[in-house]
Design brief:
This protein is an alpha/beta fold and about 500 residues long. It contains 19 helices and 17 strands. The longest helix has 21 residues.
């Protein structure tokens, strides 16, 4: 085991302002970047060249890691093609699937020295489709694998030092998750290249199993994470799909499921949903899915298995281990956990591995070192979330509503699957009465994409996830219909001392 590069990673960005463009938390493998004011957010999302020049980092599925870009440059020198036309993937499977989705010929797929990827055309929509496939399925090349390639090539002097479990790390991660989810056999836990890779594998696995029965339709509950919606809407997973806008409307969900019962492959739900933090009635969904003969897939990343028990109702549960499981915001990885009692179980165990990508071994080693603190981390996050939610409720001149697991709309459903009292998870969606910049720009916490770190983070989530909709009157109307608008602040509560968290938010809210 090695040691951290410079003490606690989170200390570098905990409860203070961080300069624009700085990787968050500061590791070479950081999954977030500081975008500390709304002007910079707008510049970044609109593609402003001056802003983009200051922000060279980003969430690895959305912004190519600098090390991966350098590896693409090496391949360009080796004759693969121009560096900006080389799309690197985690596996041969992903490269082939990306090329197929983009409508490219098999000749576009390459392998060189164990690396896999796609040669992209210079123009046309195919390049964008191939990149979209890799983003939506989380099948990108790992920054740690790129780091090792650059080290072997003599282009960097050493690897970043970090805590890692070198001996059987995959087994260590699966053992922790098996215990957390309550499964006896760790073989029911499959590990994937990212959280989205786990979700994409689950949807593809269920679809493959159900297609033999003539079932090709998915039922989506409400407004969920945009990449998950993209898997269905853009037919990255080649299926049909139907959306029930209100995840609380059980009668409508049942009506739609019954109407499509003969063709329904599965239902996809989140606990709570991202970004609205709405929790559907999971036990009722199980009954609906059983009656329709379809699978129920649940993404429990936000709630975590320490706070909710959803596996008994689901056929498979997905989780992004990038978030609370590690808390370090410096590694992408995901997991899918099969319900041993599911009628789809035996096939799912095989199909999940066939449709997903195995994580790079150093990413697994990093997760294994961090996941040992998962349960304790959630205890602290839960306690701090309760304190901060109470603080925000007192500022009713600024705060219109706080969306979270315990708000009036979701509390009853959440408590049906809650493992213990006072366990809401760490996300709050704050509906502000004032322009977002009046709070966001003055808030002394890490600000940028991602959540689930052990340090408190804030995100202008509607800007980051749905800037295209914010940019048009029609888009803004579509957001409002779902209870979303520009002046909403997502808070990911960390493990700092609760008094410090409250004081930090008081300083931003008190003058308003």
């Amino acid at each position: 085991m090695t040691t951290e590069a410079s003490g606690e990673l989170g200390a570098a960005c905990s409860l203070r302002h961080t300069a624009v463009g700085r990787p968050v938390p500061g590791s070479l493998h950081s999954v977030s970047v500081s975008i500390p004011d709304i002007a910079a957010v707008i510049g970044y999302e609109s593609g402003d060249a001056a802003t983009r020049s200051r922000i060279s980092w980003g969430y690895p599925r959305f912004r190519t890691h600098p090390y991966v870009t350098r590896v693409a440059g090496l391949l360009a020198q080796d004759g693969i093609g121009p560096a900006n036309a080389v799309l690197l993937t985690r596996s041969a499977r992903a490269a082939g699937a990306a090329a197929t989705y983009a409508g490219l010929t098999p000749e576009a797929v390459f392998e060189r020295n164990g690396l896999h990827g796609v040669r992209l055309p210079a123009d046309g929509p195919s390049a964008a489709r191939a990149r979209a496939y890799v983003q939506h399925t989380g099948s990108h090349l790992s920054s740690r694998e790129a780091e090792d390639i650059l080290l072997d090539a003599g282009l960097i002097e050493n690897r970043q030092a970090e805590a890692a479990v070198e001996e059987s790390p995959a087994e260590a991660v699966r053992a922790v998750l098996a215990q957390a989810y309550g499964v006896r056999d760790a073989a029911d836990v499959s590990l994937h290249n990212s959280g989205m890779n786990a979700v994409a594998a689950a949807l593809a696995a269920v679809s493959g199993i159900q297609r033999e029965n003539g079932r090709r339709r998915w039922l989506q509950l409400g407004w969920i994470f945009f990449d998950t919606m993209s898997l269905l809407e853009k037919r990255v997973i080649d299926v049909e799909h139907t959306t029930v806008p209100d995840p609380f409307d059980l009668s409508e969900i049942a009506r739609v499921a019954d109407a499509h019962a003969g063709e329904l492959a599965g239902i996809i739900a989140e606990v709570p949903s991202n970004p609205s933090l709405r929790t559907p009635d999971i036990p009722a969904l199980r009954e609906i899915a059983t009656r329709a003969g379809c699978a129920l897939v649940v993404d429990a990343t936000i709630a975590t298995p320490y706070n909710v028990e959803v596996l008994p109702y689901a056929d498979v549960v997905c989780e992004s281990l990038t978030k609370y499981a590690t808390g370090s915001a410096d590694v992408l990885m995901g997991a899918a956990v099969v319900n041993p009692a599911s009628s789809f179980g035996p096939d799912l165990r095989t199909e999940l591995r066939r449709h997903g990508d195995e994580p790079y071994h150093r990413d697994t080693a990093r997760v294994a070192a961090r996941i040992r603190g998962y349960a304790e981390r959630m205890d602290r996050v839960n306690a701090n979330t309760l304190v901060l939610a109470a603080c925000l409720a007192r500022h009713d001149k600024v705060v219109r509503h706080v969306g979270w697991a315990y708000d009036a709309a979701s509390r009853g459903n959440y408590r049906k699957v809650e493992r213990r009292p006072d366990a809401p998870g760490g996300l709050l969606m704050v509906d502000l009465k004032v322009p977002l910049e009046q709070v966001y720009d003055h808030l002394a916490v890490a600000k940028g994409p991602s959540f689930g770190a052990e340090f408190t983070m804030a995100s202008p989530q509607i800007f980051i996830a749905h800037y295209d909709l914010l940019s048009t009157p029609e888009g803004r109307a579509a957001l409002r219909a779902r209870g979303l608008h520009r002046d909403m602040l997502r808070i990911s509560v960390g493990t700092e001392e609760p008094e410090r968290i409250v004081e930090t938010f008081e300083q931003a809210l008190r003058p308003l």
